[in-house]
Amino acid sequence: MSSPAAFSRPQLASYSLLALPLAFAALPLYVLLPNLYARDFGMPLATLGAVLLAARAFDAFTDPLLGRLADRLGRDGLTVRMLGYLVEADHSGRPPLPGGMPESMQRILGYAQDLAILDARPQPLLLGRHLIALGMTPGPHFKVLLNAAYEAQLNALVAKSSLRTHVVECPPEDITKSFRR
């Protein structure tokens, strides 16, 4: 399996620039909050570190799962929002449980909203027209290639912003291999 060509400095800068606003929001949380909780509430720093690590690990685990759920529901014309309504109806019809949407489902709907998959399945980032624009000839290999790219997108194996660039820089015969790990 060959690796894709290295990115140029301008490409790396353009991809990294998108993370800057997120860093502005998240960095103070990771820098200031541990001190606040340790100083004012007596919480050990190791516990804080474990909680922050668990939160990031939870996101890394649930984001691909929600993408797969939205994809599976979308194939049947359903959405994550509809699943939320079903859970709410089920929860409300089970006394002695209180009516309404369970908090866990509200969190799932919030994650789905953040991932833009609340009302539709994830849209493929790589389409046949992109391959044709690269000079590839349409054929049965398109389906294999596009399916592999979509699976990699759902599994979050490739950065969404760099999927098309990855295909451009990788030789066509190695593209589907490069998405499999």
Please characterize this protein's 3D structure.
With 181 residues, the chain is an all-alpha fold. It folds into two domains: 18-114, no CATH class; 128-179, no CATH class. The chain has nine helices and no strands. The mean pLDDT is 76.
What attributes does this structure have?
mainly alpha, 66% helix, 181 residues
How far is it from the N-terminal to the C-terminal residue, by CA? 10 Å
Number of structural units classed as domains: 2
Main sheet properties: none
Number of helices: 9
Give the overall average pLDDT.
76
Q: Helix/strand/pairing class, anyone?
A: mainly alpha
Shape: flat
The stretches of 5 or more residues where confidence is low (pLDDT under 50) are: none
Topology, element by element:
Layout: H1 9-17, H2 20-41, H3 45-75, H4 80-92, H5 103-114, H6 128-133, H7 140-154, H8 163-169, H9 175-179
Helix pairs in contact: 2-3, 4-5
Compact overview of the structure:
By secondary structure, the protein is an all-alpha fold. It has helices at residues 9-17, 20-41, 45-75, 80-92, 103-114, 128-133, 140-154, 163-169, 175-179.
